[in-house]
Amino acid sequence: ARVVLLAGLAFTQPSTGPRLSGRAFEPARAPHSGDGGDEEIPQRSSAAEPRPTSRHRLFGVGLLSSAVAAAAVALGGFASKASADEEQAAASVVLVDESGLLAPSTRTTLTSLLQRVERDTGLKLRVLCPKQGIQMRREEWKEYLRPISKSMGVDPNSLVIVAEQRAQLKTGRMLGLFSLNPGIKLQERYQYRLTNDLLLRESNTYGDPRYVDANGTDQAIQEVTRNLAAVLYGLQDDPIRRFAGPLSAEEVRAILEKHGA
Fold first, then answer.
1. At CA 188, angle to CA 185 and CA 192, rounded to 5?
2. In what order do the strands lie in the sheet with 95-97?
3. Each residue's pLDDT expressed in tens, for the chain with a length of 261 residues
4. Whole-angstrom distance, CA of residue 203 vs CA of residue 162
């Protein structure tokens, strides 16, 4: 699979044949859990977790000779930045469904949830259901992602859920519904707590073709989105908690209700 780097995220273009995936920032893919087959199967990375490429830095401001002037500049700067951040969050598209995988009511509900998560945490959880089959056309997929990433405000602090029903070209077997694309800074910030293993398990649980066949794409996308929203809230609520796998429905409900989401 070929990786397209945009805004600090790695979007993987699916290959047309079997290929093992073990790179640190490749998105999780849900395998078909039937017997055998030559569809793409995600493998656990040989590296336990990606190491941060840079440390978080604190940006200071220069001192002015007048304390009053310094306070005025600082307050004005922070206010402007906060206002700009709020405007950007409000203007960003948080969900795109170009293949009709979601019911209109679900799109409304998930849009509200995604916006709430960003307001509360500063983290960007996005859902993208692209045009059917576009991921298999490499150059078209690359060009498609550019304006979509910009309109969705995707950056290295984002986690993008890509949902598309795809089949293995040679056998016709359905592939997993999801690829989960975490930003580099997001993984650095929650190193060892928001892990590739967790994302694989989320993808395998809700994106497995058997789960999708039994519950539908609408339900599958709702479940993985709500679960990951609860995980992002949980990471901020408890600075030492690690998530090994998808949360139970009861825990997801409790976390989201706690935050009014």
1. 145
2. 28-29, 178-182, 158-163, 124-129, 95-97
3. 545 555 556 565 544 433 323 333 333 343 344 444 443 333 333 334 444 443 333 223 332 233 333 333 333 443 444 444 444 444 589 999 999 999 999 999 999 999 999 999 999 999 999 998 998 889 999 999 999 999 999 999 999 999 999 888 788 888 899 999 999 999 999 999 999 999 999 999 999 999 999 999 999 999 999 999 999 999 999 999 999 899 999 999 999 999 999
4. 10
- State the CB neighbour count (10 A cutoff) for residue 170: 12
Alpha-carbon separation of residue 246 from 68, 121, 195 (angstroms): 51, 20, 12
Strand partners, 128: 96, 162
Amino acid type, 123: L
Residues 6+ apart with CB under 8 A from 166: 14, 133, 135, 136, 174, 175
At position 104, the amino acid (one-letter code) is: P
- How far, in Å, CA of 96 to CA of 102, rounded? 10
Would you say the pTM of this structure is higher than 0.90? no
Two tokens, residue 108: 């409304």
